[in-house]
Design goal:
The protein has eleven helices and 18 strands. The protein is an alpha/beta fold and about 425 residues long. It has a domain of about 140 residues. It has an eight-stranded mixed beta sheet with strand order 5-4-3-1-6-8-9-11, with helices on one face. Strands 13-14-15-17 form a four-stranded mixed beta sheet, covered by helices on one side. The chain has a two-stranded parallel ribbon with strand order 2-10. Helix 2 crosses helix 3 and helix 4 crosses helix 5. The longest helix has 21 residues. It is globular, with a radius of gyration of 22 Å.
């Protein structure tokens, strides 16, 4: 009788704990901060060596940083998107240092850059960039301080007044709007949209993932812009209304280019492409039925990177564009390229974001997504430029073939294999 009583109590406790776990409310909030520096700062635009670090000539459209903070009462996570080229390895630690007292760590913050080639120069934010080579970019301490403070601000703003939310994610296949610029056949056609509403039904965030370089503007375009991702976000916010915040993050776009519209200026082409993508996103968004109960997990681990080495043909392509001499390359490898990086992954209901710390080749990203799909994840995505940019990330075959992307890959032929294995390892526990 005593054993039966003990067994009954044990079962009741198990059921009670399951119930408690199931009914934990996921709360969230989001915030937006203007990331546009004053023109008086004479900031340079990144993405093209031919710009020679000349200051931006004007502001075509303002750029933004946006943060989504999630909290289930036991843990919290900050997802931050921004309309810039990318982040060097020194930025995230500087942000975390200023937020440490609020419980933010490297582990629970994911920074994702859109990779706009009409926005802030990544090398201008790198405090280890002492090369003074205009094609690479000139370090600007005041710009680094400006960006770090803005990222701290947006996370602090989002980490307040959190409210219960519902979450849903769907994806669609989009044809004819991206292509493989290396002439290979593979492209990622997935458009993935996550809808986060307040429990009241008011929209909070539309989070979207589409894989293509924001390279419609070229080196002659000297006005600051968020590129087509900026137009995409603004257009979607206008269509949905009610104060929604649209957040875009890129995928494994190392060899993926947009299929640009014809005619007009590059800014007009970017606007039309952004509007076209907004239409595609809106069609998916309207079909999403958010749920109040969602799995919320994240994971993080360090990556030991392969030996740093210059590609044998670096002078012929990337080296020529960025005026990289043998001496400068050794400085880049020894000082500016880290010997370790980080891998982050977030699970939010049907959505999984697996971060890649650089420009991952498309077929490598698809390999990670296919692995996650086989593990039961409905909507796996790649978060390109996650936390930092270390280099292009290619397969050994692509590396040996050469070309521009290989010349800007600084860790030899095994980098792609290493990064993919680490991405799968960090993401797999979240699928369980």
């Amino acid at each position: 009788m005593k054993r039966l009583f003990t067994l009954t109590i044990s079962i009741m406790l198990i059921l009670t704990n399951m119930s408690i776990g199931k009914n934990i409310e996921l709360k969230a909030n989001a915030a937006v901060v203007d990331l546009t520096p004053p023109l008086e700062m004479k900031f340079s635009l990144g993405g093209y060596g031919a710009r020679m670090s000349k200051p931006a000539e004007g502001i075509h459209d303002r750029i933004w940083s946006k943060a989504l903070v999630l909290n289930d009462g036991e843990k919290k996570f900050a997802l931050v998107t921004m309309d810039i080229l990318g982040l060097p390895p020194n930025v995230k630690p500087a942000v975390i240092e200023k937020l440490a007292e609020s419980g933010w760590l490297l582990e629970n913050v994911l920074l994702l850059s859109s990779h706009s080639h009409a926005s802030l120069d990544m090398s201008a934010l790198n405090d280890k960039n002492m090369l003074n080579i205009p094609q690479i970019g000139i370090y600007q301490p005041e710009l680094l301080e400006f960006v770090v403070n803005k990222l701290v601000q947006v996370i602090k703003l989002a980490d307040s007044e959190l409210k219960p939310v519902s979450v849903g994610t769907e994806k669609a296949t989009v044809e004819g709007l991206n292509r493989n610029r290396r002439g290979e056949k593979v492209s990622d056609k997935d458009l993935t949209v996550t809808r986060i509403d307040l429990k009241s039904g008011k929209p909070l965030v539309a989070l979207m993932n589409w894989t293509a370089h924001p390279t419609i503007m070229d080196d002659d375009d000297m006005w600051l812009s968020g590129g087509w991702p900026g137009y995409l976000q603004r257009e979607l916010e206008a269509w949905i209304g009610d104060g929604i915040i649209a957040m875009y993050y890129n995928g494994a776009q190392g060899d993926q280019s947009p299929v640009r519209p014809k005619g007009g200026s590059h800014y007009e082409q970017a606007e039309r492409y952004g509007r076209l993508m907004a239409k595609k996103v809106y069609q998916v968004y309207e079909k999403i039925n958010p749920k109040t109960e969602s799995i919320f997990k994240y994971n993080y681990q360090e990556i030991a990177l392969p030996k740093r080495v210059a590609h044998p043909l670096f002078k012929a392509t990337g080296g020529a564009e960025y005026n990289i001499t043998d001496e400068a390359m050794q400085m880049i490898l020894g000082v500016m390229c880290p010997d370790k990086s980080m891998s982050s992954a977030l699970r939010l209901g049907d959505l999984m974001i697996v971060g890649a710390p650089g420009e991952l080749a498309c077929h490598l990203g698809l390999k990670v997504k296919q692995k996650m799909s086989a593990s039961g994840i409905k909507c796996p995505t790649i978060g390109g430029f996650a936390n930092e940019w270390i280099s292009y990330i290619l397969s050994s075959e692509q590396y040996e073939k050469g070309g521009y992307e290989a010349s800007v890959s600084f860790y030899g032929p095994e980098l792609g294999k290493t990064i993919v294995e680490e991405m799968i390892e960090v993401a797999t526990p979240l699928a369980e």
